[in-house]
Amino acid sequence: MIRAAAEAGHVRTDMPAADLATYSLHALAAAADLPATRPARTRLVELTLAALRPARAG
């Protein structure tokens, strides 16, 4: 799924799709260690999604 997203330009392509998948799984698994508050988990998900986005041109 990540490879298809990269080919479509939706996620970064400077790292292999397998690395992005592994990074994402580990980052989101870390949510279990966060305080059980919605803001903390929301920030982690937002950070993970931002890290997957392709670089802006320019």
What's the count of strands? 0
What level of helicity do the residues show? 55-70%
Which descriptor suits the 3D outline? elongated
**Global Rg:** 13 Å
- Rounded to the nearest angstrom, the distance between the terminal CA atoms is 27 Å
Estimate what percentage of residues fall within beta strands.
Answer: under 5%
Overall structural class, as computed from helix and strand content, comes to mainly alpha
Major sheet size, sense and barrel closure: none
Assembly type of the chains comes to single chain
Q: Residue ranges: pLDDT <50 for 5 or more in a row?
A: none
Count up the helices. 3
Organism: Dactylosporangium matsuzakiense
Protein name: TetR family transcriptional regulator
